[in-house]
Write a structure and sequence with these properties.
heterodimer, A: alpha+beta, Alpha-Beta Plaits, 5-stranded antiparallel beta sheet, 3-stranded antiparallel beta sheet, 16% strand, elongated, B: mainly alpha, 4 helices, 82% helix
């Protein structure tokens, strides 16, 4: 408290009292009498007024700019959201139409059993259709020490200092290792992967086909009995995960499942690619 | 007369020239303003107390601005810039308030 008391009691510079006392004018020196003193006072007031005015001008100049930028950002977000909603509606409509057409085609070709079976087979391979089978379940999670969102001070966090976090690259390598080990279908957190799927990062979040994933990351894969041992020995699979666990305390577990259910991929249909002719390999 | 002239010229120069503050100095501008206000209120109070001294006024004004800026700069280098500027604002704020109170006692006798 003595600090605060000191500040309160010595609010005025002691220099004033000392200077007045040394001139022997304590209590009577109100305004400087000499021209030099007046110039000093005028110059000091000029500086003070200059600093105040510049500060006020600065604040007034920067405030509208910030507000304007904020408004523009809000408008852009709103537009993007409206666009996304519209596209989603179109997708839903197209999907419903596709389903109807498929059922119609199925009904039309009821006599031709071969094409329906072929369609199902194709859907299985491409991931467009839901599938089940024996496989493994891999659960990936951040290290216990990894901070939660918003806990980091953005001024001090150096971006990639948070090494206990599972990165998009880790998920990519693990999924590639699963394919190499003979997986016939893979889904992450219920997102089926197709030949067109993308696994990427936005900030600290991992996106699969632009859908953000929530911890823990559950990777389901359908595959034969050799897949698990193949994955465990794969450099990008079990070996890599073991390394992550040893170095960064990232948690993971692999379990063998009798039945793994994979949903159908959300994406269906190609917009631009067309078949270039007959004679392609049939699955 | 000269004092009033200096005040007016300062405001006019600030408004007309609108000097661009270097980006590196922008964080220190608010602190400089508070320090300047402290010096001005101190000067007014000294005047009313009858102990005003022009040299002390100018020197205290300049040194307050520079020291406040240096403290905040040092704090920024150490990563505690916002805390230290809070400290500077608190100390200078208390001084401004008690000087303003002293001025009020002089002017209104209350």
């Amino acid at each position: 408290m003595s600090l605060l008391t000191n500040v309160m009691e010595h609010a005025l510079d002691d220099g004033y009292a000392d200077a007045a006392r040394s001139r022997g004018q304590y209590g009577t020196s109100r305004m400087p009498g000499t021209l030099r003193g007046k110039l000093f006072l005028g110059g000091g007031l000029l500086l003070a007024a200059l600093v105040l005015t510049v500060g006020a001008v600065q604040v007034r100049a920067s405030a509208p700019v910030a507000a304007q930028e904020r408004q523009e950002l809000i408008a852009r977000v709103g537009t993007a959201q409206a666009n996304a909603d519209q596209v989603q509606q179109e997708i839903d409509k197209d999907r419903a139409q596709l389903k109807r057409l498929q059922q119609q085609a199925k009904a039309d070709g009821a006599g031709d059993g071969g094409s329906t079976a072929q369609l199902q087979q194709l859907q299985l391979v491409t991931g467009v259709g839901a599938a089940y089978g024996p496989g493994i379940r891999l659960v990936l999670d951040d290290a216990v020490s990894a901070g939660t969102d918003g806990g980091d001070n953005p001024r001090t966090a150096a971006g990639f200092s948070d090494t206990g976090r599972v990165r998009d690259r880790d998920v990519q390598l693990v999924v590639n290792a699963l394919w190499q080990s003979g997986a016939e279908g893979v889904a992450i957190n219920g997102q089926r992967l197709t030949a067109l799927s993308a696994i990427r990062a936005a900030g600290d979040a991992i996106l699969v086909d632009n859908h953000p994933l929530v911890l823990p990351y559950t990777v389901d894969a359908i595959g034969g009995s050799g897949m698990e041992s193949g994955f465990q020995q794969n450099v990008d699979g079990g070996v890599y995960l073991e390394q992550l666990k040893a170095d960064y305390a990232i948690r993971y577990s692999i379990s063998s499942e009798d039945r793994v259910d994979l949903p159908a991929a959300a994406r269906s249909g190609l917009q631009y690619a067309t078949p270039s002719g007959r004679g392609g390999a049939t699955p | 007369m000269i004092a009033v002239l200096g005040l007016v010229i300062g405001v006019v120069v600030g408004l007309v020239v609108q000097p661009g503050i270097p980006a590196g100095l922008v964080p220190y501008l608010p602190i400089a303003i508070v320090a300047a206000l402290d010096a001005v209120f101190g000067g007014i109070r000294a005047m009313l107390d009858g102990i005003f001294d022009d040299k002390v006024f100018v020197v205290s004004f300049l040194s307050n601005v520079v020291v406040a800026g240096l403290i905040v700069f040092l704090g920024d280098q150490l990563g505690v810039g916002s805390q230290l500027s809070t400290g500077v604002v608190v100390v200078l704020g208390i001084r401004i308030f008690s000087n303003a109170a002293a001025i009020r006692r002089h002017v209104f006798r209350a």
